[in-house]
Amino acid sequence: MSKVLFASISKKFVMALAGLFLLTFLPVHLIINFMLLKSDPAPFNAAAHFMATFPLVKIFEIVLMAAILIHVTYGIFLQISNWLARPVGYVSGSKAETSFFSKFMIWTGATVLTFLVLHFFNFYFIKLGLVEGDPENFYSVAHDLFRIPAYNYIYLACFVMLGFHLYHAFSSAFQTLGLNHRIWTPIVKKIALFYAILIPAGFASISITLWLFS
Amino acid sequence: MGKLDAKIPAGPLAQKWTNYKATTKLVNPANKKKLEIIVIGTGLSGAGASSALGELGYSVKTFCYQDSPRRAHSVAAQGGINAAKNYQSDNDSVYRLFYDMIKGGDFRAREANVYRAAEVSNQVIDHYTALGVPFARDYGGTLNTRSFGGVQVSRTFYSSGQTGQQCLLGTYSSLNRQIKSGNVKMFPRREMLDLVLIEGKARGIITRNLVSGEIERHSAHAVVLATGGYGTIYFLSTLAVNSNASAAWKAHKKGAFFANPSFVQIHPTSIPQLNEFQSKLTLMSESLRNDGRIWVPKTKGDKRHANDIPEEERDYYLERRYPTFGNLVPRDVASRAAKERCDAGYGIGETGLAVNLDFRDAIKKQGKKAIENKYGNLFEMYRNITGIDSYVEPMRIYPAGHYTMGGLWVDYELMTTIPGLYSIGESNFSDHGANRLGASSLMQASGDGYFILPNTINNYLSGEISVPKISTDRLEFAEAEKASIERLNKLISIKGKKNAGSFHKRLGKIMWDHCGMSRNEAGLKEALKLINELKEEFWKELNVTGSLNEVNPELEKAGRVADYFELAELLVTDALNRKESCGAHFREEYQTPDGEAMRNDEEFTYVAAWEYAGEGKPPVLHKEELKFEEVEMKVRSYK
Amino acid sequence: MKLTLKIWRQKNASAKGNFETYQMDNVSPEMAFLEMLDSLNKRLVEEDKDPVAFDHDCREGICGSCGMYINGHPHGPVPAITTCHLSMRFFKDGETVWIEPWRAKPFPVIKDLIVDRTAFDKIQIACGFISVNTGSAPEANNILIPKKISDEAFNSAICIGCGACVAACKNASAMLFVSAKISQYALLPQGRVEAKERVRAMVDKMDEVGFGSCSNTGACEAECPKQIKITNIARMNREFFKAF
Ligand SMILES: Cc1cc2nc3c(=O)[nH]c(=O)nc-3n(C[C@H](O)[C@H](O)[C@H](O)COP(=O)(O)OP(=O)(O)OC[C@H]3O[C@@H](n4cnc5c(N)ncnc54)[C@H](O)[C@@H]3O)c2cc1C
Ligand code: SF4
Ligand code: FES
After folding, report:
1. What's A172's domain CATH number?
2. Domains of chain C as residue ranges with CATH
3. Half-sphere exposure (CA, 13 Å, Cβ side) for B49?
4. Domain that holds residue A147
5. Beta strands in B188-287 (DSSP E)
6. Which of A113, B539, C31, C92 has its CA 20 to 30 A from that of A7?
7. pLDDT digits (tens, 9 = 90+) for B190-199
C-alpha cells in the first residue's frame, strides 16, 4: 500500500487534484477583486472580512493552503526526479511537436509561487498578524500597491505566467486523472484555453484600471 | 554413424502423436528442477519452448543475440498463422491442412511430422488467444480468418499485417512469466560460438557476451537450437540482417546432420533491390496477391510508365499460365515465373528485375476504401521505402530469399543426430519439404516450441536424472572455449583491408546468381569454385577492427560470414546432388517442355542428410527414405 | 549529396564520449539512413578505424532494435517511422546531421549509439503477461471479444519497444510504453483477471528502474514510430486508481 502511495502516478494524481482545487479558488478570488473597482471600499473590505472570519471559509482556507503546499512540493519532487531521469541532454535539442507550455511548467509555476509569496507578505500574513498592517482595510492596501508602477509590471508578468501555467494544467489534470475521451478531451482543451485567458485577463484588467485610471 | 532412424511411432497416422504421448517416458516433477536445458533462440519456437519447459519445472537457460528476446525475427512475419479450426465450415480439417502441406512441399517432407504439426495447430491458436494475442475478429466477436498462400480454404488467423509480431509478443510475455518465476534465466546479447559434447552427448555451449566480449561456458543436460533460418546467405533477403546459421553450423561440425540445405524458398513479392547499397529486401505480404494482379509489358524493354500501357499490351503471365490458381499460385511457382519473364527481357524498371503488382482493377471494383482497409499499412510501408503511391500506380515487386526449408536433421522427437541436441522452428528441416506454404511456419515454430518439444524431451531426460549438474570446468568445455577464442583471434589477426560485410555481399551474389531460384549443373559447379576463391580471399584480406573484449559488431559479422562460406558449399553440393526439380529447388535440366518442375520420385524421394566429414573433406550423404503411407504422390499442378 | 555527420562516439559504458565529425561525399538519396551509416562504417574499416556501433536487426521497422536521436528527433525528422525506414531523400545536400544515442538514466550507453534497454524487459517481467500455462487455454472462440475492443487492443499492442518515447520525453518517462502494454491487457477479457496486480507491478517497476514521470507533454506520441496514443496513459492511470 505504501508503495502505491508513493508511485509516480499517485504523486501526479494528488498534484492534479490539488491543482484542480486551486482552479476553483481563482474565480472566487477574482470576483472579490472586482469589488476593488468600486469607489466604496466597504464591499471589498466586508468580503475580505467575511473570508477572514467565517468558520467554513476558515476550513476552506486550511485546505487551500494544504493544496498549495502539496501541489508545490510534489511538483518540485517530481521535477527533480524527472531531471534525474535525463542526466545527459541532447545537443540537437528537442524538435518534437508538443504542447509548448507543458515544457515550462516548473518555471511558470515557480514564477506564480514567487508572486504568491509576495502576495502573502502584502495581504495574507497581515491577516495572520505576522506582518504589520491593517487587516480590516485591504482595500486601501491594494489601491496603494497598484499605484506603484513596478508592482504592476510584476503583477502583470506573473499573471501572464499564470495563464501559461493554467493552460496546460487544466487539461493535463484531466489526463492524469485518467479522463481522456474522444469527444470530451478536445472540449476540455477549449475550456482550458478559455479559462487560462479569462482568469489572468480578469486580474490584469483590475490592476490596469486601478493603475491608470484612479 | 549408421542408418538414420526417424523414430516414427507405429500406428495409423492420425494416432501416432496420441500414442506417442501416451507411452513416452516421463520425468518426475521433483527431478525436473534438477535438470537443466539450454535453449538458443527466442523466436516463436525458442521462447515458446522455454516457457513451456519452465512451466513444467525444468531449469531453463535461454539465449539470444538481440538485446531483448522480443526482437527475434519471428517478429517480422506479416501474413498469418494457419490452423485447422474449420471456423468457416469450408471443409477444412487436420487432414486437409496436413495434405496441403505435404503437397505444397512437393512430397519431400516426413508424413508423421507434418501430420503432427497440423494436429497441434488448433492448440496453438487457443494458446495465443489466451495469452492475449489480438487476432483479427468478426463483428460477432469470433476470430476471423483469411485464405492465404495457394490453398482453397480460409484457415489463416492474422493480426492485420503484424501477425508474427503479435504472436512473438505473446510468446515473449509467457517467457517473461517464467523468467519472473525463476524457472527460466534469460541471457540476451549472447552469441553461441560452439556446442560442447561430453561423451557424445550435447552438454553445453560456449557463448560470447556481446557487451563485455567475455567468452562464457554454460552447461546443461540438453541443448535446444531454435536459431531460425539462414536466408541471409543470399545477403539480400527478407530476414533480419543479423540472422545467421552459425549456431546450427557449429552443431553440424560437431556431428549433427544437415538436411536438404538447398531447399530455400524465394518469396515472390518483395520490394526489388533499388540500389547497390541496399542491405535488406522488404517483404510485401503475400496477401496482396489476393487482390493485386501481376503483369509485365508484352513488348520487350517497354519503358513506358505502367499506367500508360494499355490493357491489351499487358501480359498477366500468372493468369495466362495458371488459369485455375492465377495470381494465387504457390510461392515457388510465382517466383520462378517472375524470373522467367525478367530473364526473357520483359522486366520493368531501370534494372529490368521487377514486375508489376497492380491494384487498379481491385480499386475499381471494391473502391479505394476497401483496399485501404485491407492493406493500408502495407501501402504505407511501400510508399515510405520507394516513394511510390500504389493506389495510383502498380507496386514493383521481385522475388527475394525468404525461408529455409532445409536445416538440421531431426527425428520425430525433434532430436538431431547428436543425443541431447534438439532443433526446433525454422532451424530444423522437418515439416515443409521442398517448399513451404504461407502461414505454416509460425504454426510450425509455435507448435514445435509449445506443444511438441516439451512432450518429447522427457523421453531423453528421463535417462539423465541421475546425472548431476555438469561442471563447466571439464576439459571438454576448456577445449571448446579455447578453439572459439582461437578462431576469433584468427579473424582479428588477418588485418587486411576489407570489411566482412563486403564479403557477405559478394557471397550473396554468387549464391543468388548460381543457386537461387533456378539452378543448373554448370552454374553450381561454377559457384563452388567462386565460393572457394572468395573464401580464400576472405581469410587473407578481411579486416576486423577492435578487439575481442568489447562491443564489436564487425567481429560478430566476420564470424557469421566465415560460417556462411562453409554452409554455402554444402548448399551448392546438395543442389548438385539433387538431380530433379521439386518445390523451390528448380534444376533447369529437369523441367517439362512448358517449363514446369519435374520431380524424380524414383530416385529422390529422400531427405538428404549431410554429415560433416572434417575440414576440406567432402560431406557424407545419408538418405532418409520418405515413405508415403497416407497420401499418394502426385504431380503438383496449379494450372 | 554531401552531408556532415556529427556522431556521438563513446568507447564503452564508462568512457566519456564526444562528438566526432564525418564528411560524407557520396550519399545517394535512395539510401536508407542505416545504409548510409553502413557505407561510413565500410570506409572506417578500410581506414582501420573503429566503425560506429548501433543496434539494428530486422531493418523493416518491426523489431524495435534500431533507434538514434537524429537532428532533434528520435528516429529522425519523419513522423511514424523507425530509423531503419528513414530514407536519405528527406535530407538536404550540405546538411549537418547530429546523431545521438537515446538519453535516459535507465538507458545507459553501452557503446556509441547502442544503449541498454533491459529496463523495458524488467517492466514486462514484472507482470506484462497473462498467467496461462501451455495446454490449459480454452477453445479460442469461447472468448468473444467485440471487434472494436479487439482492434483497440491491437492498436496498443503494436508497440515495438524501441524506446523512442523515452528518448523524446523531456522527463525520460516510459509511460507511453508501459501504458500501451497495460491497455492491451486491460481491454481484453483474458487480461482483466490479473488487471490489478499487473498495473501495480508494472508501475512499481517503472518507477524503480528510474524513468521520469509523465507531464502530459505529448512528445512521446508525436515521435512514436507506431503512433501509440497518449490515451493509453490515461487508461493506465485509470487502471492504477482502480487497483487500490
Ligand atoms: C519477412 C518475413 C515474413 C514472414 N511471414 C510469415 C507468415 O506470414 N507466416 C508464417 O507462418 N511464417 C512467416 N515467416 C516465416 C517465420 O516468420 C519464421 O520461419 C519463424 O518465425 C521462425 O521462427 P524461429 O523461432 O524458428 O526463429 P527466429 O524467430 O528467427 O528466431 C531465431 C532466434 O535465434 C537467435 N539466434 C540465432 N543465432 C544465434 C546464435 N548464434 N546465438 C544466440 N542466439 C542466436 C536469435 O537471437 C533469435 O532469437 C516470415 C518470415 C519472414 C522473414
Ligand atoms: S510506445 Fe512507441 S516509441 Fe515507445 S517503445 Fe513503443 S513503439 Fe517505441
Ligand atoms: S532494425 Fe528493426 S525496427 Fe529498425
Report:
1. 1.20.1300
2. 3-111 (3.10.20.30), 117-242 (1.10.1060.10)
3. 35
4. 2-213
5. 190-198, 201-209, 215-219, 222-225, 258-259, 264-270
6. A113
7. 999 999 999 9
Alpha-carbon gap, residue C62 to B283, rounded angstroms: 12
What CA dihedral angle connects B274, B279, B281 and B282, to 10 degrees? -100
The predicted pLDDT at position B161 comes to: 86
CB B543, CB B555: distance < 8 Å:
no
Class of domain B268-401: alpha beta
* R_g over Cα of chain A: 19
What's the CA gap between C18 and C3, in Å, rounded?
19
Which of A77, A82, A177 best tests the C interface by mutation, with the highest count of C CBs <10 A? Answer: A82
pLDDT one-digit tens code per residue, C210-235: 999 999 999 999 999 999 999 999 99
Q: Return the amino acid letter for B343.
A: D
Site of grid cell 557424445: B200
Q: What is the pTM of this model?
A: 0.96
Nearest by CB to C216, which of A8, A84, A102?
A102
Number of domains in chain A: 1
Contacts of C192 (CB under 8 A, 6+ apart): C185, C186
3-state helix, strand, coil in chain C (%, to 5): 40, 15, 45
CA distance B433 to B101: 8
pLDDT mean over B203-218: 98
* Digit-coded pLDDT (tens) for B570-592: 999 999 999 999 999 999 999 99
Measure Cα distances from C95 to B532, C29, C41, C43 in Å.
43, 13, 20, 20
Q: Which of B38, B39, B40 to mutate to test the pocket of ligand 1 (most atoms within 8 A of CB)?
A: B40
| In the predicted structure, residue B1 carries a pLDDT above the cut 60 | no
**Exposure class string for C1-37: b at 16+ Cβ within 10 A, else e:** bebebbbbbbebbeeebeeeebebeebeebbbbbbbb
Residue with cell 561440425: B253
Query: pLDDT tens digits, residue range A46-67?
Result: 888 888 888 888 888 899 999 9
C156 CB within 6 A, ligand 3: no
Separation in Å, CA B336 to CA B327, B331, B397, B448: 13, 8, 13, 30
CB count within 10 Å of CB B591 equals: 15
Using the mean position of ligand 1's atoms as its centre, give its distance from the Cα of residue B42 in Å. 9
C192/C182 Cα distance (integer angstroms): 10
Residue B619: how many CA atoms within 13 Å on its side-chain side? 29
Would you state the pLDDT for residue B147?
Answer: 86
**Beta bridge partner(s), residue C115:** C109
The ipTM, to two decimals, is 0.98
Which three three-digit cell numbers place residue B414?
A: 525433434
To the nearest 10°, the Cα dihedral for C138, C142, C144, C150?
30
Residue A196 sits at the vertex; the CA angle it makes with A194 and A202, to the nearest 5 degrees, is 90
| Catalytic residue positions of B, numbered | 331
Sheet holding B59-63, edge to edge: B184-187, B59-63, B36-40, B222-225, B421-423
Nearest neighbour of C215 by CB, restricted to A84, A102, A180:
A102
C-alpha neighbours within 13 Å on the C-beta side of residue A27: 9
Class of domain B478-600: mainly alpha
d(CA C160, CA B485): 35
C165/C229 Cα distance (integer angstroms): 11
Provide the angle, in degrees to the nearest 10, between the axes of the packed helices B44-56 and B453-461: 60
Query: H or E element: which one contains B62?
Result: strand B59-63
Over residues B583-606, the mean pLDDT reads: 95
Residues forming beta bridges with residue B423, ordered by sequence position: B225
Q: How far apart, in whole angstroms, are the C-alpha atoms of residue B398 and residue B388?
A: 16
Chain C window 198-217: which residues touch A at a Cβ cutoff of 8 Å? Answer: 200, 203-204, 206-207, 210-217
